[in-house]
Amino acid sequence: MFRVRLNARRATLVAAIAAAFPALPTYALTLSAEADAKTSQVVVQGDKPSSLPTEIPTTIEGIQAKEIERNINAIDAEDALKYLPSLLVRKRYVGDYNHAVLATRASGTGNSARSMVYADGILLSNLLGNGATFTPRWGLVTPEEIERVDVLYGPFSAAYPGNSVGAVVDYRTRMPKAFEAHAKVLGFSENFQLYGTDKTYSGKQLSASLGNRQGDFSWWLNLNQLDSDGHPIAFTNKLMSAGVTSSAGKVVTGAVAGKNPQNQDWWILGATGQYHTIQDHAKVKLAYDFSPTLHAAYTFGYWRNKMDSGVESYLRDASGNPVVSGDVNIKGKKYTLSATDMSNSQNRLEHLSHGLNLKSSSKGVFDWEVAASLYDYNKDIARSPLVAIPTADSGGAGRITDQSGTGWNTLALKGIWRPDTRHTVEFGYQREAYHLKTLVSDTGNWISGEAEKQFSAFRGDTSLQSLYAQDAWRITPHWKTIIGVRAEQWKADNGALANASSTLNFASRSENFVSPKAAIAYASGGDWTYKASLGRAVRMPTVSELYQGTISNTTIVNNDPNLKPEKSWTTEWSAERSLHDGRGLLRTTLFHERTRDALYSQTNTLVTPNVTNIQNVDDIRTTGLEIAFADNDVLLPGLDISASLTYADSVIVRNDKFPASVNKRQPRIPDWRANLLLSYRVTDKFSSSLGIRYSGKQYSALDNSDVNADTYFGFSDFLVADLRLRYQVARQWSAAIGIDNLNNKKYWAFHPYTQRSVVAELKFDF
């Protein structure tokens, strides 16, 4: 079990001030000081696997199951992170399985490979690529099985690769101590009004859990089904300037006038990407205690998704029939709708995960751990049409994208050596391997046809082998330091791109890097603790960034297989004050991060013709300030408050290939962020919470040319409020109702976020 010194349940921060190098986002909550040496740390105890080191060299945030249940309308696992400082999950609708990317202080929602997500030590982050479509596999965790979530900010622990530069999220799920059973029924509904769409989209979630401990053996089973009818996330559009003055084309009505992010006039012609997704989840966990100090655990996870997307054309002909393709005439100008401008799609996915852990916990001179995991795209099929279709039941030519066989595996050998009471040395060997396999085929029937002629294919492997060591040294009762180093060997091989008739193979690559880490903490002896942390992170290019190219007019257009890795130095200085004998915390943090060779898709304007693909951006610097506060029983008994405010100045300071981006803000990093969560326990049975989330101005384009944020493709600021009421009906029964986006804010992250939604649930616990 985790023991978080300083009442983890209420901790909403830690502290910081002053940055020295490039710093990192640091989260501050749930940390405290030990009585004899008030140096912030979290201690991992017991027989349950965790990816976190024994002693954490910087701040960590945590939230427990009871807090999630009381304060958050949690339908998906990522909802647990909703109010944590400086974090944002780009969740567009309930069950968003392919775009819910985690953003941190200096990493936006386009940088999915700059954070890591684990569940019981199993890697859920999809590090096959970097971007919106490589979201963590949140579906392998359901809210009701979460025991707690911890977030470690930044690359300050040698136990993690460079992908930890933003944050490490560790979910720990339940294991029973006695027989227990749980069941939950949940429903949600959203009234969505945007452009020409005015509809209600609803869904439901059913879940059941069962577990027991019998002597040295314990087991846990969790089943969950989510049936979500999401709002449209994409919109067919045409620039008004693209129209040709003419009387030709079918005269239509219904087009909605607007402006795109560059403030150009355009027509919105229809809504697409209206996903109906049914997701089935199963989790089996087995654990056995060979002795009081030797524990083994195995986890099997199963996730299946059936997705069908819908189309709604706003265009109507003279007879009132919908128009989805061909030449159309809007206000005296002709526009051409291609066959795929308004089209449906399908996904049929079946993913498996395995995790095995063997761990000693003697708390003596030496302990060890062996952990291995496997994530497998057992089935991963996407279908899309090449012909205009008025309904989802129509067949016709199309393409099938098959990623079956893609996946990753991990191995970790860890040791902990305690030579005396002043030193705790952690060391180990880690290996991660990623395999990407994509085959795109033509088919005569996009709905039910078999794969026929190959259109394109992509494949590649990367692996990372690492040795690390770090020593937590308690110098005096008031001073503590942690010094570590990580040595890594990265390899990329078997890379290839192919079109229908030819294949382009790439040479293997191998590179070595060393990343030092350091942190120091001073406890004044009173209520103040001061900390400083420094760490280097090397974020390797992913398989997709290296090899996932495109086919244009049957010609292979590839990304750069010689991309350099991102190299970041991050630092932070922190000051935290314990409030009311440890019941609350106040933290201030100054952070700075410098990243060289950042990986972004951009246009190289130095060559003719210009080339647009994944490229290295020379230098990005981020400096910021975060203030966080948490306290319980504020003003009146039962009222808990947590709040955070973050300012980030993130600027591209050098980019030789695209000079127009220099001195512009890094994409998708807002200038201001803020969270406020008020939780009030009216009685022992009745609780209420009000959450407020704010995100300020940001851009999506490297040159910040997207000045109109409140539109499709835009990235807007937002201020939204969430409400939750929960009542313990009886000892085993509870009910809750909530409203997300209470103020019905219409806001964007390229796609529209969810508008006002009502959530209701009924839960049974035995």
UniProtKB/TrEMBL annotation:
InterPro entries: Beta-barrel_TonB (IPR000531), Beta-barrel_TonB_sf (IPR036942), Plug_dom (IPR012910), Plug_dom_sf (IPR037066), TonB-dep_rcpt-like (IPR039426). PROSITE patterns: TONB_DEPENDENT_REC_3. It is a multi-pass membrane protein. The keyword Zinc does not apply. It is found in: Cell outer membrane. Residues 55-168 form the TonB-dependent receptor plug domain. SUPFAM superfamilies: Porins (SSF56935). It comes from the Bacteria. Gene3D superfamilies: TonB-dependent receptor, beta-barrel domain (2.40.170.20), TonB-dependent receptor, plug domain (2.170.130.10). It holds the Pfam family TonB_dep_Rec_b-barrel. Belongs to the TonB-dependent receptor family. This is TonB-dependent receptor.
